[in-house]
Amino acid sequence: MPIAAATPVFERLRQQIETLEHRHTATVPVAKPVDQWLPHHGLPAGCIHEVKGAHLANAIAFAGILSARLAASSAGQVLYLATDRRLHPLGLLPYGIKPQDILHVSAKRQQDLAWVALEALRCAQVSAVIALIDGIDLKDSRRLQLAAEESGATGFFLGHAASAPIASPVTRWRIAPYVNDRQRRFDQPCWKVDLLYCRGGRPGSWTLEWRNQDLAEVAQAQPAQAASKPAAAYALAG
Question: In total, how many domains does the chain have?
Fold first, then answer.
C-alpha cells in the first residue's frame, strides 16, 4: 500500500491516541498536599466525581469550593441539582461561589435528576454540576462521563455517607468534620478529607481547613493503606 494512501488512517489514529493521552490533563487545584498526591497534580476536570459527607453540608461545601474554582477559570455556570429546593445560595458565599454564577434546578424524581445532570454536563456554558443523586448505575455513569469529556464540564455527585454509590467515577471522596480544641469561625470549617478511590492513583487522607479562601493542611497527609474498612471497601468499587 502506498504511504500516501495510508496517511489519513495514521492521522486519525494519531489524533485518537492524543485524545486518550490528554484526557483529564485539565485539572482544578484542591490543596497543595492533595494536588501533589493526585496523579495529574490536581483534580481532573471534564469528568465525574463522587463526594460523600458524614453530613451532606460538608460534601456540598467541598464540591462548592472546587466548582467555584472551575467557574472562575472558565467563566461558566454552576448547576446545583436536587429533588428539593432547600439550597441556600448565600451559604455558599464563603466558599467562593457567587449567587449570579449558580443555578438551582429541582426535579421530583431521581430518574429526572439523572437526565437533567446529563443534559447539564453536555452544555458548553456549564463549568460544574453539583448533583444530589442517590446511586447511578454503570450505564448512566458512562453516559455522564462521556458527556463531561465532550463538553469539559465537571460533575460532582453528592450523597450522605450511607447512600448508594455511583458506578465508576474518576474519584471518590468522603468529607467529615474534624473537631479539635481550637475555636473556629462558622465560615472556617475543618474537614477530614479521605480520597477513597482515584483512577490511576492511590487513596489518601488529609485534614484540611478552609481559611483565606484556600484549603490548607492541618495534619500531615497519610496514605490510606491504614484507612478504615469502609474506606477500603469503597476503594474496591471504582
Answer: 1
